């Protein structure tokens, strides 16, 4: 395990039991993800991408094996500890955006921020509503939605909603951003824009992005690709394709 | 069950399984609604029919006509009048003459400390023993012993069962009795129930059942001998033909009454019809109360149930749009779909009603039994399965649930496949909350913003929940107000207002200079006696503004009695020694009078004090107020009063009895629980009656009458002291009974036990209602918001923080629910208390403790009943739910 390793999976298996049938979603998976990487996980439907993301983000626990995040084993955390872990370590971007419908754009970002507070300098965390509000506005500005701050999700387009979701994920300042099919519910152009935004933010913030998609074309934009197949896993590093507009899916 | 295809049947079962808890809560509401209806309705119907049976079996009098107090009629004279009269009115089927005589009893009772004797008041009833059971009006049900074949053995009596129960008396025991100053030791030959005392209430002015009031029955002949009233009676009881309408009955009786009074110089007071006979009237009041509750409670519960079912099914149709779409695009007909959703509520209604009916049938027997047990009813309790109630419960239960389920089902039926299939993400609309807009608040802490916005997000659902909570709070407020108003009123009456510890009744009237003052000074010097107030109690009639009320006048010997503290209701209130009258607040309310008004009060001129008046006038005329010594005059007066009493009081040669009316000013209104008592001074009464003609003569003889002495004791908790005083007082002549305030309080407390049980049942229902409705709402809210909830939890919200957000929202709902239930609850309580209980008056009060219990209790119930829904909610599969687009 190198110093740069952020996520480390050792012989991880995940089985689901549905009644009497046992479904083997992941078996004996071992891989490492380095800090700051833009990781794309590809694989056809049912290969276990979502399962893997759920394990990394402590939404679910593995049946076998160890998952180390920043060197800490999260496989055996309690329910409460897992919530704490997600709160501080993971930023989520969902396929269906999942904004809180009763909160405005800026409040949705505030909701994330309020969980961890605003850290201006190490050891100096503020939960002040004003600080949270101004930080949330800054993030909305970063995703280009300052003018939409007081709109409710129902008043925004899908792309806009996903931008808010991105702002909400990043505002918390977690080391890992998890995105499961983030463009799956968007049209082509909008999807590209969202990916561009994520790439930019990855560069700017140096946070690790792990994105799952069934579209193998998207692998081109990754620093690191995890390709899940029915038989096993294949991982490789690459120089990412920068001109996103040329992508087709 | 062929109307649903296999697929829908399976899905239906699946839906129910999936929402076990919710379904269970709806069931619960349905069962309780139907169950409470059946329980209460069958309960009171059973009680009614039990009473009917008792009344039929015992030939309960349709009407009763009494003479004025201290007036008797000659049985043979009245009988010949009746015989002539009933030739024209064969509807008067049975007429019995009875002699009712005040009496006293001395029986032992085991208390915690020791066995002691209680000298209580009662009534001896002489009746024609030669009548067969079928000829006797107001017959008996034997609790112990059997109907004596011919005559009661000498010195034997029948004893009314309530008294026998309190003092644990049985057949062949002795009963120490005092009738007209003579002591008797009767043998109890039977313990009986009599229809006129199923609840023993001695008079209209004593509203509380008094199980210590002993009633004995003995042959008229024997009572005649004991009382020197041979040939006389004072009570006529009549049964009319069964097929007579109430109107016809009243017509015949009032005609009879007028003619009877013509014959007897107005000796009789107005007829008392069966429904106003005190015991029967009190029973009916109870039953009416139960009947009212039997309607109100199920209506409240079923209304909440139907709202809950509507909300649930509506939500289900919403969330199953896609399934509906798929099904209809596959070719299932709208009827299939309609049937599917309708059958959901149909099953609820069907099973809920059946279980509710079974439960209700079981419990109704219990209610009948409990009531009969507390009221000490004879064993004839009729518990019947009433098909009508069962059928109506079934129809009500199934139709209410079915109707509330059919609207969402119709909606589902109308959904076009295209609409239904629209798989697009449904995002519920967001908006600023009412509070934020009103108060213009920005930047709440986000954990407050979420619940505040959720509040009233589904307006109709939030409203329904608030209504449900309000309904529960209403029930709680009514229960609390009942409890506080009645308990508080009684306790205030007996501690702050009536400050007496012992009350001593004379057998008749006692006049100041003819022994009363001696008695008072004797009692006053007994150790422990703090003060003695003589009181005169006489029935009267108050008239004002065209309203007329029968009342009891309590006259004190002074304007400021030592043992009674008036609770003035206005600053102008005061007792003026002469020509003043104090109304109790309930009476002031029913008369529409207040301090400063003039009312007129009437009293029967002759009967009460006629003998003394007549004696005084006779002597005055004889001696012209002079010549004789005081002592001689007093002696002569005493003998004349006794003589006059005999000659004056028998109808044929009595002076005509007229009501005298006097105008009098209301000088105060005192807040007390009695609804038919007025206070004045003895002086005021004797002045208007004119019996103080010796007052300003040189003999200066005071003939102020009194019927009761009220004692204040320095250390009322010392029972030994009380017993000693009692022993001393009972040695005086003409004492009928001595009651301890302590015993009165005890018997009141006993009576209230039954009442408290009802209150507890009420509270139980209210809690269930609040709990089930909150559970349903939260459960549905969860289903609807599971996606956002899952998102919050995924983002790292802890379970506690999540609980907090949900609780805040429910807290606000509950707050509004409580606020909404308070006023209607108070109004309902006031309405029930002031309408149902005419004889006494309780202003509605709710104590701080009760408010606290209501607020904290309801909040607690709500917070607890949200837990099962929340536990189910937080256990959801975050990965699944954050992706599920149908939510
Ligand atoms: N909650 C679950 N219960 C049972 N099986 C599941 C569950 N989640 C996923 N699976 C199964 O695990 C396998 C991997 O699923 P998933 O991780 O969702 O794949 P992907 O996201 O790559 O499409 C599939 O066969 C799927 O059916
Ligand atoms: Mg997936």
Structure, explained:
The complex is a heterodimer of chains A (249) and B (887). Chain A is an alpha/beta fold. Chain A contains 6 helices and 12 strands. Chain A has a domain at 5-101 and 175-246: P-loop containing nucleotide triphosphate hydrolases (Rossmann fold). In chain A, strand 7 (118-121) and strand 8 form a beta hairpin. Chain A starts with a strand and ends in a 12-residue tail after the last strand. The mean pLDDT of chain A is 89. Chain B is of the alpha+beta class. Chain B has 4 domains: 1-57 and 277-424, no CATH class; 62-276, no CATH class; 447-488 and 742-887, no CATH class; 537-704, no CATH class. In chain B, 53% of the residues lie in helices and 18% in strands. Chain B contains 24 helices and 21 strands. Chain B starts with 5 loop residues before the first helix and ends in a 6-residue tail after the last helix. Chain A binds chain B through residues 50, 54, 57, 59-60, 79-80, 83-88, 90, 92, 94-96, 98-104, 107, 110-112, 114-116, 129-130, 132-133, 152-154, 168, 180, 185, and chain B through 425, 427-431, 443-447, 449-450, 453-454, 457, 787-788, 791-799, 878-879, 882-883, 885. Residues 16, 18, 23, 25, 43, 45-51 of chain A line the site of adenosine-5'-diphosphate.
Mean pLDDT of chain B: 82
Strand order of the largest sheet of chain B: 3-4-9-6-8-7
Number of helices of chain B: 24
**Distinct helical segment count of chain A:** 6
CATH architecture of the domain at 5-101 and 175-246 in chain A: 3-Layer(aba) Sandwich
Beta fraction of chain A: 25-35%
Shape of chain B: elongated
Largest sheet of chain A: 6 strands, mixed
Number of strands of chain B: 21
- CATH homology superfamily of the domain at 5-101 and 175-246 in chain A: P-loop containing nucleotide triphosphate hydrolases
The percent range for helix content of chain B is 40-55%
The helix-and-strand class of chain A reads: alpha/beta
The dominant shape of chain A is: globular
Which parts of chain A are unreliable, with pLDDT below 50 for 5 consecutive residues or more? none
Rounded to the nearest angstrom, the radius of gyration of chain B is: 35 Å
Q: What's the CATH class of the domain at 5-101 and 175-246 in chain A, please?
A: Alpha Beta
Q: How many strands of chain A?
A: 12
The share of residues in helices of chain A is 25-40%
Largest sheet of chain B: 6 strands, mixed, barrel
């Amino acid at each position: 395990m190198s110093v740069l390793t952020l996520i480390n999976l050792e012989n991880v298996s995940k089985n689901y039991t549905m009644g009497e049938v046992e479904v083997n979603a992941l078996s004996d998976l071992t891989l490492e993800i380095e800090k700051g990487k833009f990781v794309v996980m590809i694989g056809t439907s049912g290969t276990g991408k979502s399962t893997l993301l759920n394990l990394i983000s402590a939404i679910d626990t593995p049946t076998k094996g160890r998952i180390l995040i920043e060197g800490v084993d999260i496989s055996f955390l309690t329910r409460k500890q897992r919530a704490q872990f997600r709160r501080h370590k993971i930023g989520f971007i969902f396929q269906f955006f999942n904004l809180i419908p009763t909160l405005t754009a800026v409040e949705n970002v505030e909701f994330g921020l309020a969980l961890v507070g605003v850290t201006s300098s190490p050891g100096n965390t503020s939960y002040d509503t004003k600080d949270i509000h101004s930080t949330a506005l800054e993030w909305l500005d970063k995703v280009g939605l300052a003018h939409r701050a007081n709109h409710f999700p129902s008043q925004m387009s899908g792309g806009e909603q996903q931008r808010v979701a991105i702002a909400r994920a990043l505002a918390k300042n977690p080391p890992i951003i998890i995105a499961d099919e983030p463009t799956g519910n968007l049209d082509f152009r909008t999807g590209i824009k969202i990916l561009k935004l994520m790439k930019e933010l990855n560069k700017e913030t140096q946070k690790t992005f792990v994105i799952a998609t069934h579209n193998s074309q998207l692998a081109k934009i990754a620093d690191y690709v995890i390709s899940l197949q029915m038989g096993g896993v294949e991982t490789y590093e690459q120089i990412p394709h920068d001109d996103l507009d040329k992508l087709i899916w | 069950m062929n109307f649903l295809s296999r697929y829908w049947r399976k899905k239906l079962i699946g839906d129910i399984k999936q929402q076990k808890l919710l379904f269970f809560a709806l069931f619960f509401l349905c069962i309780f609604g139907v169950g409470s209806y059946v329980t209460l309705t069958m309960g009171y119907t059973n009680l009614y029919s039990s009473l009917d049976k008792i009344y039929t079996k015992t030939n309960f009098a349709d009407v009763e006509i009494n003479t004025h107090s201290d007036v008797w009629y000659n049985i043979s004279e009245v009988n010949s009048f009746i015989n002539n009269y009933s030739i024209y009115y064969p509807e008067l089927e049975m007429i019995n003459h009875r002699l009712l005589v005040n009496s006293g009893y001395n029986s032992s009772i085991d208390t915690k400390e020791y066995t002691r004797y209680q000298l209580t008041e009662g009534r001896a009833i002489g009746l024609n023993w030669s009548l067969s059971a079928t000829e006797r009006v107001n017959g008996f049900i034997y609790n112990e012993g059997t109907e004596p074949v011919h005559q009661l053995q000498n010195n034997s009596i029948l004893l009314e069962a309530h008294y026998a129960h309190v003092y644990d008396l049985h057949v062949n025991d002795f009963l120490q009795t005092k009738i007209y100053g003579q002591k008797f030791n009767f043998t109890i030959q039977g313990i009986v129930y009599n229809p006129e005392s199923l609840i023993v209430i001695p008079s209209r002015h004593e509203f509380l059942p008094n199980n210590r009031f002993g009633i004995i029955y003995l042959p008229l002949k024997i009572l005649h001998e004991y009382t020197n009233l041979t040939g006389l009676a004072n009570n006529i009881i009549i049964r009319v033909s069964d097929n007579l309408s109430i109107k016809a009955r009243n017509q015949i009786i009032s005609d009879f009454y007028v003619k009877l009074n013509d014959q007897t110089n107005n000796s009789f007071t107005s007829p008392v019809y069966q429904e106003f006979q005190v015991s029967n009237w009190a029973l009916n009041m109870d039953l009416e109360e139960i009947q009212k509750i039997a309607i109100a409670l199920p209506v409240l519960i079923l209304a909440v149930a139907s709202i809950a079912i509507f909300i649930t099914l509506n939500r289900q149709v919403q969330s199953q749009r896609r399934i509906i779409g798929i099904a209809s695009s596959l070719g299932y007909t709208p009827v299939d779909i309609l049937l599917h959703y309708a059958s959901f509520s149909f099953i609820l209604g069907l099973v809920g009603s059946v279980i509710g009916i079974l439960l209700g049938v079981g419990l109704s027997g219990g209610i009948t039994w409990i009531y009969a047990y507390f009221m000490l009813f004879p064993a004839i309790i009729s518990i019947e399965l009433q098909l009508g109630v069962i059928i109506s419960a079934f129809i009500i239960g199934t139709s209410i649930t079915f109707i509330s389920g059919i609207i969402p089902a119709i909606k589902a039926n109308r959904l076009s496949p295209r609409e239904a299939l629209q798989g697009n993400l449904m995002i519920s609309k967001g908006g600023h909350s009412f509070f934020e807009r009103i108060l213009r608040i920005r930047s709440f802490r986000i954990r407050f913003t979420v619940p505040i916005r959720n509040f009233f997000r589904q307006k109709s659902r939030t409203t329904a929940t608030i209504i449900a909570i309000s309904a529960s709070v209403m029930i709680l407020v009514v229960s609390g107000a009942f409890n506080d108003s009645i308990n508080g009123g009684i306790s205030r009456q007996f501690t702050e207002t009536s400050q007496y510890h012992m009350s001593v009744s004379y057998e008749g009237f006692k006049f100041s200079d003819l022994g009363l003052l001696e008695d008072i000074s004797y009692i006053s010097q007994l150790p422990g006696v703090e003060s003695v107030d003589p009181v005169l109690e006489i029935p009267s009639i108050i008239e004002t503004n065209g309203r007329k009320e029968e009342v009891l006048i309590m006259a004190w010997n002074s304007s400021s009695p030592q043992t009674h503290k008036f609770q003035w209701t206005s600053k102008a209130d005061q007792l003026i020694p002469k020509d003043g009258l104090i109304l109790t607040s309930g009476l002031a309310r029913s008369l529409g009078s207040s301090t400063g008004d003039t009312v007129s009060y009437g009293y029967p001129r002759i009967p009460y004090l006629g003998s003394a008046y007549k004696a005084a006038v006779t002597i005055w005329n004889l001696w012209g107020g002079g010549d004789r010594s005081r002592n001689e005059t007093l002696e002569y007066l005493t003998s004349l009063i006794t003589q006059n009493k005999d000659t004056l009081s028998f109808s044929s040669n009595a002076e005509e009895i007229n009501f005298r009316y006097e105008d009098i000013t209301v000088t105060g209104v005192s807040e007390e629980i009695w609804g038919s008592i007025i206070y004045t001074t003895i002086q005021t009464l004797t002045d208007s009656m004119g019996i103080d003609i010796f007052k300003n003569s040189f003999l200066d003889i005071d003939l102020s009458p009194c019927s009761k002495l009220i004692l204040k004791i320095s250390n009322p908790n010392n029972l030994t002291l009380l017993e000693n005083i009692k022993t001393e007082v009972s040695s005086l002549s003409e004492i009928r009974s001595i009651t301890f305030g302590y015993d009165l309080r005890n018997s009141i407390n006993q009576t209230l036990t039954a009442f408290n049980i009802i209150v507890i049942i009420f509270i139980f229902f209210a809690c269930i209602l609040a709990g089930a409705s909150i559970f349903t709402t939260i459960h549905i809210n969860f289903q609807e918001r599971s996606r956002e909830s899952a998102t919050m939890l995924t983002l790292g919200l802890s379970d506690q923080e999540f609980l907090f957000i949900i609780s805040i929202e429910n807290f606000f709902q509950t707050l509004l629910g409580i606020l909404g239930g308070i006023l209607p609850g108070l109004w309902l309580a006031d309405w029930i208390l002031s309408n149902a209980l005419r004889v006494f008056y309780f202003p509605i009060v709710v104590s701080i403790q009760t408010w606290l219990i209501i607020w904290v209790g309801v909040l607690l119930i709500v917070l607890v009943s949200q837990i099962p829904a929340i536990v189910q909610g937080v256990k959801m599969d975050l990965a699944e739910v954050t992706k599920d687009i149908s939510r």
